[in-house]
């Protein structure tokens, strides 16, 4: 039996890897990183200029992702979002 397997890495495979990474973060007591944030980082930063990636690179990128990379990305996103708000949005943080 000599079948040729033509396996394509699909969306569900990527979803599974991202779930694994989020679970790994939770095991490290990093509970506030969501699967969506991991996905956003990968597509908006890590893979932004990539046309295509081999399956092994995708797996490596996800599984070797460090909390510090996600934290830096989320910090920048928070600053960008805050820069679009007016002072009233921060009223609860301003002492009276």
TrEMBL record:
Record's superkingdom? Bacteria
Q: What is this protein called?
A: Post-transcriptional regulator
The record lists the organism as Faecalibacillus intestinalis
């Amino acid at each position: 039996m000599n079948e040729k397997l033509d396996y394509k890495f699909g969306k569900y495979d990527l979803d599974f890897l991202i779930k694994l990474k989020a679970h790994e973060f939770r095991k490290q007591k990093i509970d506030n990183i969501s699967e969506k944030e991991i996905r956003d980082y990968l597509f908006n930063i890590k893979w932004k200029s990539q046309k295509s990636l081999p399956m092994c690179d995708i797996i490596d990128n996800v599984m070797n992702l460090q909390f510090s990379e996600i934290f830096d990305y989320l910090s920048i996103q928070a600053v960008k979002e805050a820069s679009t708000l007016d002072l009233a949005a921060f009223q609860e943080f301003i002492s009276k």
